[in-house]
């Protein structure tokens, strides 16, 4: 990977504000939140419940538009306030991978089929999708689980399949909302390490919302949110490169 690639921003979120409701039901969930994530950078976003983390992530993921502020993905301005500058569905499918607290795997499809389907929906042939799905399972250490239904897998294995599905279409951005909340410390850490591996090896920009302070050393950068305000943790407490 070239240095230039590493320097480019995968995500630029500038001054995002989100107001839910109106008048006396008004909630300012996020105010002027700004975060830039480089290609190949893995960022943790911390903060108490209700501080606006999911609001930020769903805005950056082009799911719920901000009231104001700009979102630039891989150099393209896609969202300015409530105005979108792309077909969001196809832009999301090609550029953004999501991982949630629960893996949300389709229960009647095998592990490999769950990964495959993401690529088939993106126009990939069944054969190519299957071969890449198997390759990804190998990469993420769950190759031996290919033919199992999700119910046969542990929580940690299910999250690995969810990670494989999220990276299958080679997105430039991965967004994970408390992906390890349902896992024990050891398995949670293993999943966090996967995010760092994907960021560093594939050049993906990754944001992980987490309450888990035990695995923070795997992240390049740490942001915190409180009452809708975002701040980057000062440099001296960040991981040294
Ligand atoms: N759809 C919604 N309508 C109204 N208020 C909401 C909505 N979603 C979130 N909020 C409020 O916005 C604030 C931030 O919520 P959220 O982004 O979910 O925080 P976090 O993910 O940090 O727990 C909270 O006060 C929450 O109640
Ligand atoms: Mg949340």
Automatic annotation (TrEMBL):
<keyword id="KW-0547">Nucleotide-binding</keyword>
<dbReference type="GO" id="GO:0005524">
    <property type="term" value="F:ATP binding"/>
</dbReference>
<dbReference type="InterPro" id="IPR017911">
    <property type="entry name" value="MacB-like_ATP-bd"/>
</dbReference>
<keyword id="KW-0067">ATP-binding</keyword>
<dbReference type="GO" id="GO:0022857">
    <property type="term" value="F:transmembrane transporter activity"/>
</dbReference>
<dbReference type="InterPro" id="IPR017871">
    <property type="entry name" value="ABC_transporter-like_CS"/>
</dbReference>
<protein>
    <submittedName>
        <fullName>Lipoprotein-releasing system ATP-binding protein LolD</fullName>
        <ecNumber>3.6.3.-</ecNumber>
    </submittedName>
</protein>
<keyword id="KW-0378">Hydrolase</keyword>
<feature type="domain" description="ABC transporter">
    <location>
        <begin position="11"/>
        <end position="241"/>
    </location>
</feature>
<dbReference type="InterPro" id="IPR003439">
    <property type="entry name" value="ABC_transporter-like_ATP-bd"/>
</dbReference>
<dbReference type="GO" id="GO:0016887">
    <property type="term" value="F:ATP hydrolysis activity"/>
</dbReference>
<dbReference type="GO" id="GO:0098796">
    <property type="term" value="C:membrane protein complex"/>
</dbReference>
<comment type="similarity">
    <text>Belongs to the ABC transporter superfamily. Macrolide exporter (TC 3.A.1.122) family.</text>
</comment>
<dbReference type="InterPro" id="IPR027417">
    <property type="entry name" value="P-loop_NTPase"/>
</dbReference>
<dbReference type="InterPro" id="IPR015854">
    <property type="entry name" value="ABC_transpr_LolD-like"/>
</dbReference>
<keyword id="KW-0813">Transport</keyword>
<dbReference type="GO" id="GO:0005886">
    <property type="term" value="C:plasma membrane"/>
</dbReference>
<keyword id="KW-0449">Lipoprotein</keyword>
<dbReference type="InterPro" id="IPR003593">
    <property type="entry name" value="AAA+_ATPase"/>
</dbReference>
<dbReference type="Pfam" id="PF00005">
    <property type="entry name" value="ABC_tran"/>
</dbReference>
């Amino acid at each position: 990977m070239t240095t230039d690639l590493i320097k480019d921003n995968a995500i630029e979120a500038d001054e995002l504000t989100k107001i839910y409701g109106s008048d006396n039901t008004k909630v300012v969930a996020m105010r002027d939140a700004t975060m830039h994530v480089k290609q190949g950078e893995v960022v943790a976003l911390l903060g108490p419940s209700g501080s606006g983390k999911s609001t930020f992530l769903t805005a950056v993921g082009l799911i719920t538009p901000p009231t104001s502020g700009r979102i630039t993905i891989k150099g393209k301005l896609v969202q300015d306030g409530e105005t979108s500058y792309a077909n969001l569905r196809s832009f999301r499918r090609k550029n953004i991978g999501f991982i949630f607290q629960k893996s949300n795997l389709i229960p009647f499809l095998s592990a490999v089929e769950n990964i495959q389907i993401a690529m088939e929906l993106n126009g990939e042939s069944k054969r190519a999708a299957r071969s890449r799905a198997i390759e990804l399972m190998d990469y993420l250490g769950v190759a031996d689980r290919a033919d199992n239904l999700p119910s046969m897998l542990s929580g940690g294995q299910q999250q690995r399949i969810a990670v494989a599905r999220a990276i299958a279409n080679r997105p430039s951005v991965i967004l994970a909302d408390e992906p390890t909340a349902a896992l024990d410390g050891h398995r949670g850490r293993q999943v966090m390490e996967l995010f760092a591996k994907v960021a560093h090896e594939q050049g993906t920009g990754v944001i992980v919302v987490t309450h888990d302070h035990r695995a923070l050393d795997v992240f390049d950068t740490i942001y915190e949110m409180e009452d809708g305000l975002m701040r980057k943790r000062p440099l001296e407490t960040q991981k040294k490169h």
